[in-house]
Amino acid sequence: MIEGFAGFTALYIFMLAAFTGYEVISRVPVILHTPLMSGSNFVHGIVLVGAMVALGHADSTLEKSIGFIGVVLATGNAVGGYFVTERMLDMFKSSKREAKSA
Amino acid sequence: MIQGALENALAQTNDNLSQTEPDWLQTKDNLPLLEEVVSTYTAETETKAIPAALGETSGFNNNDLLMLTESMPKLAEVPKFSEVTQVAHTMPHEPPMTSWQSLFIESFYFLAAVLFILGLKKMCSPVTARGGILWAGVGMILATLATFLYPTDNLGWIILAIMIGALPSWWFAKRVAMADMPQMIALYNGMGGGAAASIAAVELVKGTTLGLTVQTLAVLGALIGSISFSGSIIAFAKLQGLMKKSVIFSKQQVLNLVLFVITVALGTIIIIQGSEATTVLIISFFAIALLFGVLMTLPIGGADMPVVISLFNALTGLAVSFEGFVLGNAAMIIAGTVVGAAGTLLTQLMAKAMNRPLTNVLFSGFGAKGGQEAAAGDDVEGSLKPIDATDAAIMMAYGEQVIIVPGYGMAVAQAQHKIWELTKALTDRGVRVKFAIHPVAGRMPGHMNVLLAEAGVPYDMIFDLEEINEEFEQTDVALVIGANDVVNPVARTNPDSPIYGMPILNADKSRNVVVIKRGRGTGFSGIENYLFYADNTRLLYGDGQKMAAELLQALKSL
Question: Per the confidence metrics, is the pTM higher than 0.80?
């Protein structure tokens, strides 16, 4: 029973997260599409956590090498994704705010 | 003596089974021994031979034998090796750690998941977007720090790998020009896909028994991640200009299909064989999946790249989510799935804006078809009428409203700063200036907005297709700079055209159209643009940035 429930809990998480993703994005203005794509690209950089766990319990040289590459790639995804998004969003300002600061 | 040994064995087994935090590695090591003891004794008890035999050979007294016989049923209750290992393997990645470590890690992952979703939500409005990425960034740092709590022997390697990955990506992300952002997103996205595939590779090579469902998810994640990795690299190379032409050859679709079927077949074998799958088989699976990613992306033209990058972004999210199931990592499942869903929606929006089903983008050589079309049906009426910068400047200066339609050409020419100066000069003269952005202008949706924002154009001067299309009729001058297909009236008029039905900006309906254009060639898709031949259209030939500067100069000398 418990095992079946645990399996379904995972399925529920998947289903709810999918709806969340769909809903969160659905009202985004076109001007933010590229930054948002970049932002979601950063968010899946969470793969770094998994890559760290995978390299963490790797034993053989082959496993360690693959795990090492995985962590390098995942870090690139997270770090690169963050700074690219930040730079893009830094540039968004409205004419009102600009007038205020001027 | 024997009784003591058995009681010890029983006690140990019970201990191992009843521990709330099972030290499963150690249990596993003890199990073969335990099973041997159990099976030997239970098997022989059934024949009732053992107590007697023991009594004869070792001189045990009857008491001992009685105890031994009594303990036999208890031993039978001890789970068999296979049963115990199955229990242990349902949580193969629960390394030995204290409960507070586990609690700490899980709560940080939970916090990270919340921050990711809130961050994405904030990124949906220009006012809060800047804070959104910060929140998501904090979530990422929390999750990463918490992960260091997992006990590991490879800590040095992990830190080294993070340093190697972080420094170049940080350096390039800080320095790359805004116009080149799409390919950077493609590159970083591909790296994420590669990382997801690597996780699967480590688990598969390790040969951990994962169970059918989880093994399937691991292989699926590996397949999707690999395709996203190699495909994104090709997308990057194309946008970066490292690969100029779309590679199209005959029977390409057939070859791709065959490769895909082989990959799926190998993946299925890996799933069925489970922990028995050989390293060679696993490596071939990854090699062919990577090759498929390359070949799938090669024929897709640059104009379709935004859709493809968005698709790969969604795929990477999905792969991350699947590997999250493999590692039992909720943060990965949630973040990956949210991105997968959001990316899918974004891909749909883009494909819809181009009026082309996704399958069409992926499986047809767009450029080739369009080129034939243009070559075949040249029934364009009218002629190309040039104009010089001074006349164009006068036209705009004495108008009431000017709408600027930028396209990828503006990005290539790096003309956005000059365009903004021109806009300011026009506004100072009392001309109302607006920017009209087509959803797929540039190489990604919103690409133009980013470029204009870089130049300093406030976002409330920038309008979507639906918001502004009605206004062209009341506009004196539509200034088209570097845009082509998105203003081609053929999309409204000619059902034979490959872009027929695509929503376009109705620049042709404004009183005058000025098109800044480098030469007489057709645009990216190779389709002849009827707008350029229209009666109210004038062409200003030259480099985008240079022409914008000339317009500005002419305007100032008026």
Answer: no
